[in-house]
Amino acid sequence: MTPIAIQTTVQKPIELVWKKWTNPSDVMQWNHASDDWHCPSATNDLRVGGEFHYIMAARDGSVEFDFNGVYTEILPLQKIAYTIEGGRKVVVLFEKISDTETQIIETFDPEDENPIEMQTAGWQAILDNFKQYVETKL
Predict the structure, then answer these.
(1) Given a cut of 80, is residue 96 above it in pLDDT?
(2) I want to staple 7 with a disulfide (CB 3.0 to 4.6 A). Which of 38, 97, 98, 105 is the partner?
(3) DSSP 8-state secondary structure symbol assigned to residue 100
(4) Do 46 and 57 form a contact (C-beta atoms < 8 A)?
């Protein structure tokens, strides 16, 4: 299947954007697609061969799942690549547009269970939450 690409531009310096993307306590604040979900746990070993583990859970406690992966490439302030369940690949590119503006482009291999539109919307919603968190909560 063709990879899916989503993107956003964050009105903050790239160093801050990178830190908030990779710091587990920050990940727990933004890593959810809607307000009825949250991320109650996050660990991150940001190095090639290192792993991250995030728990995604409904706030009402009805369901939760693990989202985890293994890093395959890390270029500080530029690129994070990792592999998730089923060997699916994810690449996140960070580009400094200006001293106060950073573009993020995230590309991921889709899974077979849900429609492409649903996957695109879900991943974009999480990326939009990241943008909102970094721009308004800091």
Answers:
(1) yes
(2) 105
(3) T
(4) no
Whether residue 56 contacts residue 32, with contact meaning beta carbons closer than 8 Å, is answered with yes
pLDDT of residue 42: 98
DSSP E strands, the chain: 4-10, 37-44, 51-58, 64-75, 79-84, 88-98, 101-108
* pLDDT level of residue 138 (50, 70, 90 thresholds): low
Structure token pair of residue 93: 């590119």
Task: Please report, as a single letter, which amino acid is at residue 70.
Answer: V
> How confident is the model at residue 137, as a pLDDT?
76
Edge-first strand order for the sheet with 51-58 is 4-10, 101-108, 88-98, 79-84, 64-75, 51-58, 37-44
> Are the CB atoms for 58 and 37 separated by under 8 Å?
yes
Cβ density class 38-58: b for 16+ within 10 Å, e for less: bbeebebebeeeeebebbbbe
